[in-house]
Design a protein that fits this description.
The protein has two helices and five strands, in the order H-E-E-E-H-E-E. The chain is an alpha+beta fold. The chain has a single domain, classed as Trna Endonuclease, Chain: A, domain 1 (3-Layer(aba) Sandwich). A five-stranded mixed sheet has the order 1-2-3-4-5. Strand 1 and strand 2 form a beta hairpin.
Length: 108
């Protein structure tokens, strides 16, 4: 299985997890110039821009680099401007291994 397929499976699991927690999945794989947001979700009047990482033989959290986070932030602002969103928002991460870890409001 290639890495894109593995990534899609991890994102599917992350979406199911979020929906069980009451999040509405707004969009997946939103691309903008220079970056991508894996999942855009909404709950309690807050937009969540979510980076999903997975892996078995390493800690996937370490793949969320400063550079990657800057790209997610840039795309988040672009998405909000494009859709005229004035709501609160945050950047989150979901780590998918055997279990799922939801890390809310990550920053640089």
């Amino acid at each position: 299985m290639n890495s894109r397929n593995k990534g899609n499976l991890a994102e599917d699991r992350a979406c199911e997890y979020l929906q069980k927690l009451g999040y509405k999945i707004v969009e997946r794989n939103f691309y903008c110039k220079g970056g991508e947001i894996d999942i855009i979700a909404y709950k309690d009047e807050v937009f969540h821009f979510i980076e999903v990482k997975s892996g078995k033989n390493f800690e996937p959290i370490f793949n969320i680099t400063t550079s990657k986070l800057k790209k997610v932030i840039k795309c988040s602002y672009f998405y909000m401007k494009k859709n005229m969103i004035k709501s609160a928002f945050c950047i989150d991460a979901i780590i998918v291994k055997d279990d799922i870890e939801f890390i809310k409001n990550i920053t640089l």
